[in-house]
Amino acid sequence: DMFLEKNPTYTELSDRMIMDWAQKSGVWKNRGYENKSCNDKPEGNFQVKELDDGSIRKALFSIAPLQSRNYIVMEVRGNLMKDTRKELLSKFEMPGFKKTALVVVGEPTADFKKKTAEYTLKAKQEASDRAFKVKKMEEKRQKMQAKQAKEAEKQKKKLEKERAKKLADAKKKFEEEKKKKEVAAAKKEGDEEETHEEEEEKKEEEPEVAPEQDMDDEEGGTKRKALWDLLGDGPADKKAKTDDDAEKAPDGAEAEEAAEAEFEAAFKD
User: Fold this and answer.
1) Residue closest to 36 by CA, chosen among 102, 127, 118, 165
2) Region 135-143: what's the mean pLDDT?
3) To which H or E segment does residue 70 belong?
4) 102 torsion bin: left (phi>0), alpha (psi -120 to 50), beta (else)
5) Less Cβ crowding at N or C end of the chain, within 10 Å?
6) What is the rounded distance in angstroms from the CA atom of residue 77 to the CA atom of residue 102?
7) Higher-confidence residue: 81 or 42?
8) Which long-range contacts (CB under 8 A, 24 or more apart) does 109-117 make?
9) 3-state DSSP call for residue 71?
10) 58 and 87 Cβ atoms separated by less than 8 Å
11) What is the Cα–Cα distance from 128 to 121, expressed in whole angstroms?
C-alpha cells in the first residue's frame, strides 16, 4: 500500500485487489468483506463460480501482459516459491517489460512503522465502531421489545377492563330482567288472588234459593213428597195441568185435608 501511494502509476495484480474490485462493484460475499482469514491471499466465497474457482484471476493474468502498463504483484507466499514465481514471470516475456524483484529484510523504516501504527489504529477503531454499533442496535432492540411488552400489557389491561365492564353490564341487565319477571309474577299472582276473593265475595253476596215448599222438618218433607206422589200433584204434575183441570180442582184447603186423611189411612194399613 505504501508503494502504491508513492507510485500511483502502478497497478496491483493479486487476489487481494480482485476482492477489492468485487467489493467496489457491489458483489455479495458470504460473511462480508471485513472477515479475512489472510491478507496475502484472502478466500473468495462469493457464491459466484468465476470468482470462487479462480477463472477471473486466470483471465486477468492472461490479459495483463497485453497492456503496456506498470504492474506490481504483491503475493508474499507466491513470490517466495520458485515454481510459482517462474510461472508468473513467464507471462511477461514480451519486450518492453522490465522485471524487478524487491526483497525487504531487516529493521523497518520509521515511515513503515508509522504507517503500520496508523493501519493498526484504524483497524482497532473500525472494530470498536462495529462493536459500538452492535451494542447500540442491541440496546435499541431491547428498548423496542420493552416498549412492545409495555404496549401489550396496556392493551391486555384495557381488554380485561372492557371485558369486566361488559360482564358487569350483562349481570346488571340480568338482575333487572329477573326483578321485572318477579314483579310481573307477583302482580299476576295478586290479580289472581284478588279475582278469587271477588268471586268468593260474589258467591257470599248471592242469596240462597229457597225450595219451592218450605218444610218444618225432614219427616214433614217426606210426608209432603209422598202426598204429592199419591195425589199426582207434584211440581212436575202441576206444570202439566191444563186450565180445565184447574177449574175442576176442589178448594186447596179441602184437598189438602182429604189428602192427609188418605195418607194417614194408608200409613195405618
Assistant:
1) 127
2) 93
3) strand 70-72
4) beta
5) C
6) 14
7) 81
8) 111/2, 112/2, 115/1, 115/2
9) strand
10) no
11) 10
User: Which cell numbers in the block locate residue 88?
Assistant: 508468473
Block residue for cell numbers 329477573: 178
Q: Which pLDDT belongs to residue 209?
A: 46
Contacts of 93 (CB under 8 A, 6+ apart): 65
Nearest to 2 by CA among 154, 82, 110: 110
152-179 as b/e: b if 16+ CB within 10 A: eeeeeeeeeeeeeeeeeeeeeeeeeeee
Q: By the 8 A CB rule, do 12 and 121 touch?
A: no
Q: Can you tell me the distance from the alpha carbon of 118 to that of 168, in angstroms, rounded to the nearest whole number?
A: 74
Supply the pLDDT for residue 93: 84
C-alpha grid cell, residue 49: 463460480
Indicate the pLDDT class of residue 25, thresholds 50, 70 and 90: confident
**Total residue count of the chain as it appears in this document:** 269
Over residues 111-126, the mean pLDDT reads 89
pLDDT tens for 203-256 read 666 555 444 444 444 555 555 555 555 555 444 444 444 444 444 444 555 666
Q: Which three cell numbers stand for residue 86?
A: 517462474
- Report how far residue 260's alpha carbon sits from residue 267's, in angstroms, rounded to the nearest whole number: 10
The C-alpha cell of 23 is what?
467489493
Q: Please determine, for residue 45, whether its predicted confidence score (pLDDT) is greater than 90.
A: no
Q: What is the pLDDT of residue 149?
A: 92
Q: How far apart are CA 16 and CA 1, in angstroms?
A: 11
